[in-house]
Amino acid sequence: MVGATGAVGQEFLRLFVERDFPVASLKLLASERSVGKTYLFKGEDIAVEEATPEAFEGVDVAFFSAGASRSRALAPAAVAAGALVVDNSSAFRMDPAVPLVVPEVNGCAMTPESRIVAVPNCTAIILLVAVNPLQKLGKLDRLIVSTYQSASGGGAAMMRLLEEETRKVICGEEPDPSHLGTRYAFNLFSHNTPINEDGYNEEEVKVIAESRKILGLPNLKLNVTCVRVPILRAHSESVTVEFEGPAPSVEAVREALSVAPGVRVIDDRAGNRFPTPLDASGQGDVLVGRIRQDLSNPHAISMFITGDQLLKGAALNAVQIAELALGVRR
């Protein structure tokens, strides 16, 4: 596992145990500055080694979660050593030769010849686990998505930043300036990625392009707005799904979602009980609620979804990909 010391890397360790992933031996890899750190796995202290091209000798499955540059530099060496690479970065997502996989949606995109499989953007994963089951109810025409993205999307460092700023503000202190260019605590701001000439940030562009590739719908219309919110963990999304014909009934949508893999419906109108990031944190399902007809458009339904960015949005999706490739069913 490359990137063992990060927030997603720690989730891998937990998932390997929880899901009884068939690990004969585990090698933890990271940058030179992390060499020598130890992590407990099944009662054994495993020391972190430096991630180098030579480190993949004898490795069957290599999970990458250390950023696109490290994946580009080291994934070819892992493949050359005979490993299946499951990459959690953006390095290979839009490569036509690399499957971009959400197992509940397009697991069939993988073949026995696939040596690199890309894990999609976390926001796209959570979105499509909830949207894909609706395809059997009608042809999709357009998705309108507004996101409420947590600090976990920026890794352990951003989670620490939010905690530190919150403590200072509560104590009446002004937080130190950060790389975000704005205060995070008790604030909302456009996703902290570059803005293109059309006014869309990089995260929004990723969600649009990756959703089209995963669904196999290159002409699907999407409008996406990505926003950071002061939540530690789990991303939420407000989604309007427009169909080419009349929208299915709320009852049909609820039924399709209730039997879909990886989805849990929380849609109690009487009790005003719907998905929250706290509900989603620490578990693997995408939670869906607020299912309703769009009163402004007879061809559309709206819903609110939330999912754990570190799990289904990252580590869990990667482990599921490896399980599918290895023929391990969960």
Can you describe what's shown?
The chain contains 9 helices and 15 strands. By secondary structure, the chain is α/β, with parallel strands linked by helices. The protein folds into 2 domains: 7-120 and 314-326, Rossmann fold (3-Layer(aba) Sandwich), CATH 3.40.50; 125-308, Dihydrodipicolinate Reductase, domain 2 (2-Layer Sandwich), CATH 3.30.360. The chain has a 6-stranded mixed β-sheet. It has a 3-stranded parallel β-sheet with strand order 5-6-7, sandwiched between helices. The radius of gyration is 20 Å and the shape is globular.
Helices and strands in order, then pairings?
Elements (H helix, E strand, L loop, with lengths): L6 H12 L10 E2 L7 E4 L2 E4 L1 E2 L10 E4 L3 H13 L3 E4 L15 H4 L9 E3 L3 H10 L8 E9 L6 H16 L18 E2 L11 H14 L5 E5 L1 E2 L6 E9 L6 H9 L4 E3 L11 H4 L5 E8 L6 E8 L3 H16 L4
Parallel strand pairs: 1-4, 5-6, 6-7, 8-10, 13-14
Antiparallel strand pairs: 2-3, 8-12, 9-11, 12-15, 14-15
Helix pairs in contact: 1-9, 4-6, 4-9
In short:
By secondary structure, the protein is of the alpha/beta class.
Work out the radius of gyration.
Answer: 20 Å
Uncertain parts: none
CATH superfamily label of the largest domain: Dihydrodipicolinate Reductase, domain 2
What overall form do the CA principal axes indicate? globular
H/E series: HEEEEEHEHEHEHEHEEEHEHEEH
CATH topology of the largest domain: Dihydrodipicolinate Reductase, domain 2
The first-level CATH class of the largest domain is given as Alpha Beta
Q: How many angstroms separate the termini?
A: 21 Å
Helical run tally: 9
Strand content: 15-25%
Give the helix level as a range of percent: 25-40%
